[in-house]
Amino acid sequence: MNYAGEIGIGGLATSEAGAWAIVSFVIPALNEEGAVGATIDSVPRQKLLRLGLTSEVLVVDNDSIDGTAAAAVRAGAIVLTEARRGYGSAFLKGLTEAKGNTLVLCDADGTYPIEDAEALIRPILEGRADFVIGSRTKGGIADGAMPWHHRYIGNPALTWLQNRLFGTRISDAHCGLRAISKDAFLALGLECCGMEFAPEMLIKAAANRLRIEEIPVRYRPRFAGKPKLRSFRDGWRHLKFLIVSFVKLRVIPTHGGSGPHHGSH
Ligand SMILES: Nc1nc2c(ncn2[C@@H]2O[C@H](COP(=O)(O)OP(=O)(O)O)[C@@H](O)[C@H]2O)c(=O)[nH]1
Ligand SMILES: [Mg+2]
Question: Relative to the alpha carbon of 88, which ligand is closest?
Fold first, then answer.
């Protein structure tokens, strides 16, 4: 869907159906009481409104034992509860419920510059891309934001393998700041409930020949709280997922049978 011609006419952006274009921010949160409020506050809702875009913020909680949900409501988000545990389940719930034609995926920990969301969604709004992923490798990583073994070993190695196996050309496969059109999200048929959701999205985006664009994003230390992903367990799961997906795509092509290819950027 292309909103380019619709933005800037009297400041209004309308969808093909005549409704206002909506951007949905979907934020999974597990015990993020100390960071979720400030993360929601940094969503540039007024700035988007000036561009004619209305927005909603959906926080998806599944098993927090702290005051995450209350903090999110106080900051003005809609809080959804997902019974199935997991990072992927939370995203699947939020992205499915989202009303927006453009969906932004972000952590609840303050690490991503969600205040710059306009740059992230612009390629989709202008009809140039279906899926936009941030790159912390290109945008810069502040001291203390990422453990050295993620920065110099795990992330580069898994990103290299992702590109090698699936023909993507990205520089930061683990970046959690992403945007996708609702239509493209629905076309992918994502189903992973755990952390494999992140590579599944990339693999299926390539297999479905989505137009993928990468933009540099800065990465900073968490506002508060602890990381939920565990380096070695999740790194290993990610590696297994890439290999199993590669084998499956080669043997049983899915979603139009396109298989791995060299995506356009
Ligand atoms: N609802 C929900 N959110 C989760 C779950 N696991 C992780 N998250 C959230 O997903 C985001 C990414 O996790 P995070 O700990 O920041 O991982 P890191 O960025 O790789 O260190 C954060 O906002 C977490 O609170 C989960 O099982 N359920
Ligand atoms: Mg995080």
Answer: 1
**What is the separation of C-alpha 45 from the centre of its chain, rounded to a whole number of angstroms?**
18
In sign, the C-alpha dihedral spanning 236, 154, 166, 122 is positive
Give the SS3 label for residue 213: strand
End-to-end CA distance of the chain: 17
From start to end of 147-265, where are the E strands?
A: 178-181, 212-216
Give the strand pairing for 102-105 and 54-61.
unpaired
* Ligand 1 atom nearest 31 alpha carbon: 25
Kindly identify the ligand whose nearest atom is closest to the C-alpha of 229: 1
Report the top-level CATH class of 4-253: alpha beta
- Residue pLDDT, tens place only, 40-85: 999 999 999 999 999 999 999 998 999 999 999 999 999 999 999 9
